[in-house]
Each structure stands twice: as C-alpha cells, then as structure tokens.
Amino acid sequence: MKTTDTPTGTATRPPAVDLVLSLGLVALFATAFLAANEWSVRAGLFPRMVTGLGLALAVLHVVLLLVRWRADGAAEPTGTVEADDEADLDVEYIFAHAGGRAWAAALGWIAAFFVGLYVLGLFVTAPLFALTYLRFSAHRSWTFSVIYAVVTGAVLYLAFEVALRLQVPPGLFL
Amino acid sequence: MGEALLDSLSQVFQLQTLGLMLIGVAIGFVVGILPGLGGPVTLALMLPFTFSMEPVEVFAFLLGMLVVTSTTGDITSVLFGIPGEATSAAATLDGYPMTRRGEGGRALGAVLFSSALGSVFGALVLAASVPIIRPVVLALGPPEFFMLTVVGLTFVVALSGKNVVKGLLMAAAGLLVALIGIDSQEGIPRYTMDQLYLWDGIPLVPLVVGLFGGAEVLQLMLSRNSIAGTSGDVPKRITGVGQGIRDTLRHWPVVLRSSAIGSTIGMVPGLGGSVAQFIAYGQARQASKNPQLFGKGAIDGVIASGAVNNAKDGGSLVPTVAFGIPGGAATAVLLSAFLIAGLDPGPEMLTTELDVTFSMVWIVVLANFVAVAAAFALLRPLIRLTFISGPLLVPFLLLLLGLGAYSSSNSFADVLVMLAAAAIGVACIRWDWPRVPFLLAVVLGAIAERYLFLSYSLFGWDWLLRPTVIGLVVLLLLVFVVPALRRRRQTRATTATTTTTVDEDVHS
C-alpha cells in the first residue's frame, strides 16, 4: 500500500487548494444561511442550524489553515488513515501522479461517453464507445474491439429492451 | 422472536431470494478478488438494480455481495501479497510468506475457513443483540434518536482520525444537500434555485453511484494497469487446503477471540475492519506460543486475519439496523438501500420488520458458506480474473454509472447529478477530504430533521434537558476531547524524544 505524499512540516507553500475549497464553503454556507433566515421557524430551524454550524466550521478551517501555515509552514496535519477510506490512498496516489495529458484524455473519453449517451442514446453510444476506447485508448486489436463492441451492444439490447423492458437513455433523435 | 427467526429463514430460502443472493455472491466474489474495486463501490453501482425488489431480496442481493468481498479479498492477500480489500491487509503479513515457502494452499484453507467461522460468530452477535437492544430502542423517543443521529455522524468523523474539521465540514455540506427540496412541514421549496427537478430533493442513487463509482472508473482510466498490477504469476499448485482447515479447528481460541474483536469493533461507528484486523492480529501474536513467527508465516496470524474480517460485518449491522448509524463506507451505502427499500432503521427494524433483520443474519451465514465452498472449488480459474486489464473494464463500468444514475427516475438530470457527485468524489480523494461523512449526512439529514421537528413539537426546548440527551451530549464532547488530549500527549512525547535525541547527538 502506497503512502500519500501529503505535505510535511517542511512545506512552505500555502495550502492553496484547501484554502480555496474552504473559502468556497464559507461563501456557500453564508448564502444558504441568509436564505434560511427568510423561512418560518418550522421550515428554517434545521437549515439555520446546519448552515450556521457549517459557516462557523468553514471560517474556523480557514483560520486554522492560515495559522498553521504561518506557524510552521505545515499545510495540513497528517493524522492516521481513515479506517474505511484506506483504499483511497492508492487512488489518491494515481490522481496525484497522473500527468496532465492522461487527465485530459480520461476526462475527454468520459465527456464523449456522456455526450454520446445524451445525443445518440445508449444502444448506439455503448458499442461505439467500447469500440473506439478499446482500439484507440487501450490499443487493443480491431478484431478484439469489434467483438467486445458487438457483444456489449447485443447484451444491452437483449437485457434492457427484450428481457427487462427497462427505459434507457433514448438519445435526442428518438 | 423465534417465529420471526424461522419466518426470515423461509423468506431467504424462497427461490427468487436465493437466486438473487447467489448473483450477489458471484459479483462479490469477483469484486473481492479484484484489488482496487471495493465493496462500497460495487454496492453503490448495484443499488439501482434493487428498485423493484422486496426488502429481503434487496439485502439478499446487496448484503450477500458485501460480506463475500471480505472473504475473497483474502485470496489475493495470501497468494500475491496484494489485499483484495483494504480490510484484508493483515492477511498478507503471514499469508504471503506462507505462499512463498510453498504453503499457499494451507494458508488459503485457514483464512477461508476462519472467515466462514468468523461470519457465523458475527451473525450470532447480530441475532443475539436484537433482544438486548430492542427494549433500549423502544424506550427512546425522538429527542434521543435526534441526538443518536448527531452522535453517530460525529463518531464517524472524530474516530476516523483524519482532519476532524474537514470531516465535520463535509458532514455539514452533506446535511445541506439533504435539505434541498420541498420542506415536509410547510411545503416551502428550499435551495431549489427555481428548478422543478430539485423539488423532490437530490436523488440518493445517482449521488451514491457518482460519489463512489466515478473515482474508481477514473483511476482505472488513469492507471491503465491490469488490476493486480505487476504481481507474480498464479502458483502452479495449490495444495494443503485440508491442513489449513484442520489448523483453524485446532486454533479455535484464536478464531473466537478474533471474531469477538471483529464484531465488537464493527459495532463502533468510524472504526471498521481496517482497524479491527490489526488489533486481532496483535492479540493473536501476544497469545501465540510462537510470536517470533509472526510476519514470517504464522498460521495463527492468518487465522486471526480471516476470522476478524468477517465477524466485523455482523457487528457493523447492529448500529445500522437498530439506530440507523452505519459504521463505515459500506454500511453507509447499505443504509441508502434501507431507504430505497422503504425501510426505516430503528424501532421498526426490531418490531414490524424483525423478519428482515433476521433475514440478514441468515444471509451473512449462507453467503459466506457458499463463497467459501466456491472458493475451494474454483480457486485457480478465479484468480486469473486478477490479471484482467483495467481499461477493459472501463466501457462496462461507465455503462453501469450511466444506467445506474438514469434508472433512478428515467431523467438525464440524474446523470448530471451523478457526474457532479463523481467530481466531488474525485476532488475529495485528490485533496484528502473524507467522502463518508458527506454521504452519511445526506442519508441521515432528512431523518435528523424529522426527529428534531418531532422533539421541538412535543417538548419545546425542554427535550434538551432529558437525561439521555444530556448523556449523549457528554458523549459527543468526549468523542472530540479524548482524541484531542491523546494527540496532544503524543505530540509532547514525540517532542521530548526528539529533544533528548538531539541533546545526545550534540553531547556525543
């Protein structure tokens, strides 16, 4: 199991991402708190409690981040690993070390899949995506990619249209 | 109670329920063997398929799948030194050294058989806890349940050990998401931004699917490896399984102690299997006649790892069922299944829906025995699954994400919710913000508000003075104060040690 490369006590850069996220949460909770104040007690009691607490915590987090950074240059204290998120460490390592090109390619393929799902529907997008992704991203042979795509399309059609009769994304043209 | 126990058994043995459990077991088996694909992720991806199922069928399918991932996760731990699940890490410590000296079959026999015994122990704990917990749960009112919800949420945040403020912030964000929609008291649209779609609130299924599944697909696309990475080849022969089973029977005190540790720690929200496995491993080492063998291939270390892993599942179901407080990521997703199946965790699960609760006991035991039998029979062909290339799974998993989200209400807006949740999940992992408190808060938000409203309507603010509520507030404070004090003491000790070392270096 890999370890995270969370900044250690020697880091001197400000914890920029955490600061931006926390300031975003400050803005979010403040807006939500103001909105909750316009509602009656019955409808607004719980929202006021939640957003008030959230706002206080977000401000506290911003202050803590700045104080720690100024005190010893540490961006974030490293605690023990969260019990059930231990598997996240490997994923975090991959996310942190994948290059910009790999990120762009992965997000591009995901965007293409969901745009295809919206425009062309499931029965066209699924085999088409399988074919192009396996051929051009996974560099599989044409034969393998075509077989995978045909099987995917056939299984989807038989399972969702013939057997289960479930509604699937139809696309814009149907 | 005995009637409910038998009734639940007959429900589990219905052909359709049994069939769904076997499908769940098969999926769990594959997922457990594939390192990288975790139980909570698969559970999330399978949630949409449970819409038309009866409650017992839902749990036969989902719980059958979940408990089996713990069992089969040990297989790759023993054979390759790569845990199939995060909770199977301890099995690598002695299981893999045994494989390297040609005793892989013996280690597998021990870890799988002790897993099965551990699951029986955990299931017994779940069944035995019902008559004990039922009067407690029935004596509690809305104020106590509101406080229990808050305590459960903070337990998960505080005991997780990560940055507590981040965890609390994520929980607050989750509660904010849970508030979106028409208010049930006065019919006021809250945080709906004039979007009709948001009047019904954020749908749970696309959110769970995106939060857990999205990051998994993206990491497979980015890593592009076979799931088992560059591990060694499948061992040519796997023999000695029978000896491993005999070893387990011989070391029955280790099985019992590890199972007790697993089911007890499983009950504490926020700790879970990753912690329990190492505590059980540690006690096995302390109690062993040959502690020097631990880490080099001690059979009792393997047995402890197997037993604790599965006993914790039964234990973690106790607070989930009785109080609606899940112990970790997997039970948080499972809690979503309760709501989808139209079940309310709490008193209802111990009275009118007692047969559903007892069906979980049978499912945990049955699913594990089926999985262990299948593991012994199909070990070698199943291990080959580990070498499936990650990119091959991408089109299939993306399909599951899209279909899972869309089938929630046949609306493409659900797919957008799933994509937004996936972005949140990826950001959480990338910048080390915990996802579990967020999901838990989304699930518990509506329940907490309902109990708060009932408490306020029935007692005004006097409910805050009820003894149990005060006790729970004290517990809440202790949850934060005790770990903070402990951390402070550790920091002081570390500083003192460092200063001493520096002084010694200077003087020498």
What report would you give on this structure?
- The complex is a heterodimer of chains A (174) and B (508).
- By secondary structure, chain A is mainly alpha-helical.
- Chain A has helices at 16-36, 41-72, 88-97, 100-119, 122-137, 142-163.
- Chain B is mainly α and 508 residues long.
- Chain B has one domain.
- In chain B, a hairpin with a 6-residue loop joins strand 1 and strand 2.
- In chain B, 60% of the residues are buried.
- The model of chain B is unreliable at 227-231 (pLDDT under 50).
- Classes of the chains: A mainly alpha (174), B mainly alpha (508).
List the SSEs and their pairings:
The complex is a heterodimer of chains A (174) and B (508).
Chain A: H1 16-36, H2 41-72, H3 88-97, H4 100-119, H5 122-137, H6 142-163
Helix pairs in contact in A: 1-2, 4-5, 5-6
Chain B: H1 2-12, H2 15-33, H3 39-46, H4 55-80, H5 89-100, H6 104-139, H7 142-158, H8 164-179, E1 181-182, E2 189-190, H9 204-223, H10 241-250, H11 252-267, H12 273-287, H13 299-323, H14 329-340, H15 347-350, H16 354-383, H17 390-406, H18 412-430, H19 436-459, H20 467-507
Main β-sheet description of chain B: 2 strands, antiparallel
- What oligomeric assembly is this protein in? heterodimer
Rg of chain B, Cα atoms, Å: 23 Å
Q: What summary fits the major beta sheet of chain A?
A: none
**Runs of chain B with pLDDT <50, length 5+?**
227-231
Q: Which structural class fits the helix and strand makeup of chain B?
A: mainly alpha
Strand ordering within the main sheet of chain B: 1-2
> Roughly how many Å is the radius of gyration of chain A?
24 Å
Mean pLDDT of chain A: 82
Q: Using the alpha-carbon principal axes, give the shape of chain A.
A: flat
Instruction: Tell the overall outline of chain B.
Output: globular
> What percent of the residues of chain B sit in helical stretches (DSSP H or I)?
over 70%
Percent strand of chain B: under 5%
Helix percent band of chain A: 55-70%
Number-wise, the strands of chain B total 2
